[in-house]
Design a protein that fits this description.
Strand content: 15-25%
Oligomer: single chain
Number of strands: 16
Helix content: 40-55%
Radius of gyration: 23 Å
Shape: globular
Structural class: alpha/beta
Order of helices and strands: HHHEEEEEEEHEEEHEHEEEHHHHEHHEH
Strand order of the largest sheet: 7-6-5-8-11
Number of helices: 13
Largest sheet: 5 strands, mixed
């Protein structure tokens, strides 16, 4: 028997149909119906308004591999456009995407300061440039911070913000709906929806760079931080006798893994001021000062991964971020630390390094806008 199709249930089922097509299309009606437990008649009724609203389209006819008859698979409308904006401390990075988060255009603009006024002004200019000549559905914005309502930034320590109505201000400037999200959560959404892991029910995304982040997908849902006062996994203590940092407790993951802290430790070991990129370059060349620092950081990254695995029962880890080169240079140390931190009988962890650019972070923001379009679908929508 198919799903009940009355009232709110009908809208929920229509959202499920749209979600299946966005994630797996082009896909036949029969396959969507199979995935969702719908009858053929129900599937036909649900697909019709989605096509009339121009969210979905019928692709060219192909032969059904099972029955051999001609079918017209459902696909997401190729004309739908979304903008993703990643706000960093020193720049705004924007992308224009289609409804599967494929990047069509990029714009990057430096920030004179990270004050809300400057960020709104520059971000609005980036949005305007990307939207020129396009019909954009909505904008996703990501940053290092917390939002309760996907609009206002409750707290961003990296930007020095508290209670900033970012979404409201950018909507006023751009005339487009704006959805605000934490940057690591947004990148996790992109990995969950638009990568080889899109059918995975459980995985972790660990990011290393300016900060240290961990996004989780549990039972097919992206886990969000409850509130701004809930410490992130970056505050996890890896060594209570370790280094101190102003942002968190002694020996935290942030103290060992943040790019600036790796650079500080390597600078002290080498006796000269080094940037993170210089540290990695020296470590790759086997420098006796830089290599031990990077190797130690990689080992603590392994302990961090093992701790997350133990607490969440996740065994699949995607390692990303601008600073993830420490996992490449110190791969042996990282894997050794993972093994040492877990019982010999435990499941082996699957780790994959996926390098990230600022455009990828912006694509994560666009993914949030795409997902919001589906989750907020209404029978009155038109695209």
């Amino acid at each position: 028997m198919g799903m009940n199709e009355t009232g709110t249930q009908t809208i929920d089922t229509a959202r499920a149909v749209a979600r299946a097509v966005v994630l797996h299309g082009p896909i036949s009606r029969s396959e969507v119906a199979r995935r969702l437990g719908l009858s053929p008649a129900s599937m036909t009724r649900l697909a019709k308004p989605l096509i009339e609203q121009r969210l979905l389209v019928e692709a060219d006819a192909i032969a059904d591999p099972v029955h051999g008859r001609l079918v017209r698979p459902l696909d997401v409308a190729p004309t739908l456009r979304f903008i993703g904006v990643k706000i960093a401390v020193d720049a705004v990075h924007g992308v224009l995407t289609d409804a599967r988060a494929s990047i069509l255009a990029r714009v990057d603009e430096a920030l004179p300061t990270s004050t809300p006024d400057d960020v709104v002004r520059v971000a609005a200019a980036v949005i305007a440039r990307l939207a020129e000549g396009e019909t954009v559905h909505s904008v996703g914005v990501s940053l290092g911070g917390h939002t309760d309502d996907h609009s206002s930034v409750v707290l961003s320590r990296s930007l020095g913000w508290r209670q900033v109505p970012l979404g409201e201000r950018l909507t006023a400037e751009s005339g487009l709906p704006v959805i605000v999200e934490n940057d690591v959560t947004a990148l996790t959404v992109a990995q969950h929806l638009f990568s080889a892991d899109r059918d995975s029910q459980r995985f972790a995304l660990v990011t290393v760079g300016v900060g240290v982040g961990c996004g989780l997908v549990i039972n097919g849902d992206v886990v969000r931080q409850l509130d701004a006062a809930s410490p992130s996994p970056s505050m996890l203590i890896l060594n209570p006798s370790g280094p101190t940092v102003p942002e968190g407790p002694r020996g935290s993951a942030l103290a060992y893994l943040a790019s600036s802290n790796v650079a500080i430790a390597a600078s002290a070991a080498c006796g000269r001021l080094l940037s993170f990129d210089e540290v990695i370059e020296l470590a790759r060349a086997g420098d006796p000062g830089a290599l031990p620092v990077v190797t130690e950081a990689a080992a603590y990254l392994g302990r961090f991964i093992a701790s997350i695995a133990t607490m969440s029962y996740v065994t699949r880890f995607i390692l990303s971020g601008e600073g993830i080169a420490i996992a490449e240079v110190g791969a042996d140390a990282m894997h050794a630390a993972i093994s040492e931190s877990r019982p010999s009988w435990s499941t082996e962890l699957d780790t994959e390094i996926v390098p990230t650019t600022m455009s990828d972070w912006a694509r994560g923001a666009a993914s949030v806008a795409i997902w919001a379009m589906i989750e907020r679908y209404s029978a009155d929508d038109r695209w």
